[in-house]
Amino acid sequence: MKSYAVIGLGRFGGSVVKGLAERGQEVLAIDRNEDIVNDYMDIATQAIIGDAQDERMLESVGIGNFDYVVVAIGENEQASTLTTLLTKELGAKMVVAKAATSIQAKVLAKVGADVIIQPEADAGRRLAERLVNKNIFEYFEISHDMMFAEMKVNNPKLEGRKISDINFHDKHEINVSMVRHTDGTTEIGAGDTILHVGDFIYVVGKKKAVSQLSNII
Ligand code: ADP
């Protein structure tokens, strides 16, 4: 089993702790605010009060031995930067740091953060993507011009049609990897897979093509 430490138990860090606990993972939760730490006593494997800018505190909990350390200190940029730096210096292999701004993201990269996330900016972009491409429910970017997307079949003209009839590959330069039917069954996308309104399809392809498809599917 992997071990996790989450530093900073605001809305973001707190949700990470809850998500890990719900998945049966061992998680150490740290915050300098006693009241907040008390809220996590029964949720985290261990919850401790501590200032993450204090190197001795980080060392005493063995921060360098965790498989993943999440630095989720929000607006306090100095604390977030120093904590990331100390955590890496103490040997943590994988440090995920939350940045409030793109400038902070650059600083966190400089001090050694392995993964940097900007939850508000990411959520905003995801919402924009969903608003523009009405049938896309989830997606992730594979590269600057390729994406993977989950989209819902809404067009009655596609009811009962085979994937090969719709000619996804040639016409839309898209590969349908998987189909999830309304009864919850799934199948690998093949030429003879039949689509129904309400099905979800999981496609890989050029962003432009995925976007176009999402508006006609
Ligand atoms: P969010 O935007 O995710 O809600 P917040 O900025 O509200 O983030 O919360 C950050 C948390 O980090 C707070 O609970 C705060 O007490 C904690 N925190 C801030 N500085 C430190 C520090 N030096 N050491 C430990 N915890 C800290």
TrEMBL record:
One of its GO terms (molecular function) is monoatomic cation transmembrane transporter activity. Residues 1-117 form the RCK N-terminal domain. Pfam families: TrkA_C, TrkA_N. Residues 134-217 form the RCK C-terminal domain. InterPro entries: NAD(P)-bd_dom_sf (IPR036291), RCK_C (IPR006037), RCK_C_sf (IPR036721), RCK_N (IPR003148), Trk_Ktr_HKT_K-transport (IPR050721). GO terms for biological process: potassium ion transport. PANTHER family: KTR SYSTEM POTASSIUM UPTAKE PROTEIN C (PTHR43833:SF7), POTASSIUM CHANNEL PROTEIN 2-RELATED-RELATED (PTHR43833). This is Potassium transporter Trk.
